[in-house]
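Review form for a predicted model. The reviewer records the input and the model, then writes brief findings.
Reviewer: anonymous (R2)
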Amino acid sequence: MDINVVNALAYEDFVKLFGNVVEKCPLISAAIWSYRPFKDLADIEARISEFIHSLPDSGKEGILRCHPDLAGRDLQSGTLTPESQEEQSQAGMTTLDSAEIAHMYHLNSEYKERFGFPFVICARLNNKADIVRQLSERLKNRRAAELECAIEEVKKICSLRLHSIVLSDIQTKL
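Model under review:
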């Protein structure tokens, strides 16, 4: 889909199409719709980033709380969003053995207890070893630094999800 098609979408269609570029946060796509026409994909990403940065910390934490635990209950019960299912699968989180699942459960629980929101990482840019390593390392962060780090990961996830929906400028010109 090229940017002209995106700009022509009705509000409801725009929110439906882009409602999960930030996990379970259709409010964000609803909020940026009024900025149409977008110049390009980078413009959409910038508007989303500006919206997220304008939120107080409690709003940013709310975005993070919409994310599922990696290899957690939602994966085990099959209730992940299609995007999260694909991302966790690509990272190898769907092939963990019982000991690895138990280890992830322990790390996820410790992380949520320490920070008050789930561990968020762009699974598509990592494998299961990287995820476990970063989860262990990020447990040492201060809360403010971790909030910032987690929001940066949200933006990476968002960017990849947007790219899967909208053709990049280079592809559009080909």
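Findings: The mean pLDDT is 95.
Further findings: The chain is about 65% helix and 0% strand.
Recommendation: see findings above.
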